[in-house]
Design brief:
This protein is 26% helix and 22% strand. It has 469 residues and is an alpha/beta fold. Helix 1 runs parallel beside helix 2, helix 2 runs parallel beside helix 5 (193-210) and helix 8 (288-301) packs parallel to helix 9 (326-339). The radius of gyration is 23 Å and the shape is elongated.
Length: 469
Amino acid sequence: MPRSVRLLPALLALSTLMAPSGRAIEPWSENPWYWSHNGEPVLLVGGSDDDNLFQWPDERLGRQLDRLVAAGGNVVRNTMSDRRDGRDWEVYAFARRDDGRYDLTRFNPEYWRRFERFLGETARRGVFVQIEVWDRFDFTDLRQPNWQSHPFNPKNNVNYGYEESGFAERYDKHPGRNEQPFFFTTPEQRDNSLVLGFQQRFVDRLLEASLAYDHVLYCIDNETSGDPAWGRYWARYLREQARGRGESVAVTEMWDSHDLRSDEHRQTFDHPDLYTFVDVSQNNHKSGQQHWDNFLFVRGYLAARPRPMNTTKTYGADGNKFGHSDRDGVERFWRHLLAGAASVRFHRPPSGLGLSDKALASIRAARLLEERVPLWTVEPDNSLLADREPNEAYLAAAAGERYALFATDGGQFALDLSPAPGAWKFEWIDIDRGVLGPAEHVEGGRSVSLSPPGDGPWAAAVTQARADP
């Protein structure tokens, strides 16, 4: 996926050499709800066991990516985060002097080596990356004293003091309170040109690495509830810097509100000229029918100018702090998949299933369904289901041509094939195992009663049966 280096056949095993590039990942011209790469549609499904994979040790990163690809996964999330979260391998982006303080005019080569290695390793494997440029939890002391050790804290650098930078020594409250001046530096806000200059240097260095590749999506923040002017500034900045290098980028912002109908989310919904796609990850705090309905609300809201809808954080795992279960995680993944999401990723443990066996089974099952019913050829349409209990089954369809079905836990319901006479094939997919189940043939032209082969989650590809030659 890099833009310039040709892969030499004799050196295929070398991770430093990549395949030649084509067109960058972009909304597909034929169906802009979905992504395309090199002009061809691509469905992004994945998961990972951490948010900032680029910081991982080399061998561990390779194993994680190989595990994902082996299951058919092709997308990961990557925050540019440097907080340690009780671990010892994260490093900061800036150079540290002998006296222990940082110089924000100089970079730490190791941080950027890791980032460039990560971009290369994902590109080599065909894994797309959604980057989050800023993570608000890096600049707070809420759960861990992240701000106390951060290079942007005035006590830790040689570039400015507390008074001139506007920073305080501690930020103990949740970053959702928006008390951290780090996120108010832009000209439309507090016009803090001193700190903004160093922020720009960081983003410039990020783009110096990432714009060499065509498999990267950009998100400004991790679940922000801050001033929309901050996101607008950085969306424009990313676009302008890319344009100056003759490139284009796909950009979004991720809002914190769990309610997709809130004014926060409309900051991206209402500005397609600025935000190429939308990230609705926080919908994954909802469950059941409401989860589906809220996603379709956004799809309807955007219908005049369709854009890809990504959910890079699918919550749900037994024992996590939100009270969401493994079953919640699997159901959310599949509801979003059939509702028309362009990218669906399992969030890291303990809040999500990450790259657990259960997550990998869902990814394999999703690919089995996609092989039979390309999801960009169908649209969500539960109106064709009858005798359906709330949250029992979900459907995407091109009526009379093909159907994709998801049943949450066995059950019995009916699919309306009355306008579609002829022979139809039902291929069941066992989501818990990620394998094909039994197949059955039915006659269309009527309403067909359905019952998955067993309890638990099942998918089905419903296609016209072909006569034997």
